[in-house]
Design goal:
This protein has one domain: Up-down Bundle (Growth Hormone, Chain: A). It has 15 helices and no strands. The chain is globular and about 60 Å long. It is 81% helix and 0% strand. It has 399 residues and is mainly α.
Length: 399
């Protein structure tokens, strides 16, 4: 039983999950400067600063989830925070672009632990709609980070060097670890832990992949996450360079994030009454229709839609995504109660791998216009719809 009250537990989960968003969003205003200063070969190489972080995140997710099923949740998080701090130091002292990329990979590997293990902590004490509600409230708190994080990065660039950002990351990790150590007791009782054995892990992974609900919604999350990766990789180029909004980039990014945070709050308040599946289905339809309209407008304007329309379409997209992410993750995890850590690991790693490969390929197609970005969002939205429909049509019949 946790020492924290429910509200504080949600806040702690949000803080642990927020490390991923903070480590990405704070540096978005600086990625162009970082790539140039450290000698990146191509203008689109700046995308690697974001995408390689997700590669480390995918590998770490696959490792720390199973470890948490064996050692307990807290020791696994402490280990991840240690790797995260090492990655921060590598980036701070980087003298070349490859060294920076290596540090970002280690950062992502370490950040996977608080992200995936916090999901398992929630699953230890909640099920179904209650789990989705807690995750939504936690995610809404965590999504306050993108509203302010790019501004923090912009302030650092205005008054100091981009390397200072990584010192801030180190302080954030230390404070999160201290909060976990002093205020939260272990959520996984010793009698519920599983030995860390390769055979057992393989069997658990196979169970997740073979379950149509867990697997189908994992693939759906991967498609939505891929679209989000395209946005993260290209937003600095789109707003700061294509639309010459460099001084206001943080405001644009934060404004769109408000839509995501609001959607997650709405989801937390309505999911028990309306249900996870209807909410997420309608949100996905809105997501696809929104980006279909954006694609048409982009084609009619030679890839240069008016900035005000770009803002409207992005806000709608973020709001729809907020209704999708928490519910899809909850539905993927719902059937996996006994192996929550492994379920979170396999689901998170697979969806992250999809996001890296698909999102990375789509982001490389950016050519100074919005057409390839809008096309990618439409295709990924349709992919998520196919995967979620397949999952529901193959839902096991209750006996």
């Amino acid at each position: 039983m946790q020492r924290t009250r429910p509200a504080e537990f949600i806040a702690l989960v949000a803080a642990l999950t927020a490390m991923v968003a903070m480590t990405i969003d704070t540096m978005l205003p600086a990625i162009g400067v970082m790539a140039t200063e450290l000698g990146a070969a191509h203008d689109n190489d700046r995308h690697l600063i974001i995408l390689i972080f997700f590669a480390g995140l995918a590998l770490g997710t696959l490792i720390f989830g199973p470890i948490s099923d064996s050692t307990g949740r807290k020791p696994a998080i402490y280990a991840g925070l240690g790797f995260y701090l090492v990655g921060c130091l590598m980036c701070y002292f980087a003298t070349s672009f490859p060294m920076l990329i290596a540090g970002r990979f280690v950062q992502g590997f370490g950040a996977a632990s608080p992200r995936v293990v916090s999901m398992a902590m929630v699953r230890d004490g909640a099920k179904g709609a209650d789990m989705a509600r807690i995750r939504s409230y936690g995610m809404s708190g965590f999504m306050l980070v993108p509203i302010s994080a790019p501004s923090i990065g912009q302030v650092v660039l205005s008054f100091g060097h981009w390397r200072v950002i990584f010192l801030g990351f180190m302080a954030m990790a230390a404070l999160a670890g201290l909060w976990l150590a002093t205020r939260q007791e272990e959520t996984l009782a010793p009698e519920h832990r599983h030995p860390f054995e390769a055979v057992a892990l393989w069997e658990s992974a196979a169970a997740v992949v073979k379950h149509p609900i867990a697997f189908g919604y994992t693939i759906a999350v991967g498609f939505v996450f891929a679209a989000f990766n395209v946005y993260l990789a290209t937003c600095q180029q789109i707003f700061a360079e294509q639309y010459q909004q460099g001084g206001y980039f943080a405001l644009w990014f934060g404004g769109f994030a408000v839509g995501l945070a609001l959607a997650m709050i709405v989801n937390g308040r309505t999911v028990k009454r309306l249900g996870m599946r209807p909410l997420s289905k309608y949100a996905l339809w809105a997501f696809i229709a929104n980006w279909g309209a954006m694609l048409v407008v982009s084609l009619l304007t030679a890839g240069q839609p008016p900035l005000v329309l770009v803002a409207v379409f992005n806000f709608i997209s973020f709001f729809a995504s907020g209704l999708i992410f928490g519910n899809y993750n909850a539905m993927a995890m719902e059937p996996m109660g006994r192996i929550a850590g492994m379920a979170a690991a396999v689901s998170g790693a697979l969806s992250s791998l999809m996001a890296i490969v698909l999102g990375g390929f789509a982001a490389r197609q950016y050519d100074g216009t919005l057409t390839p970005v809008a096309l990618a969002f439409v295709v990924f939205g349709l992919g998520a719809w196919v995967a979620s429909e397949w999952a529901e049509r193959n839902r096991p019949v209750a006996h």
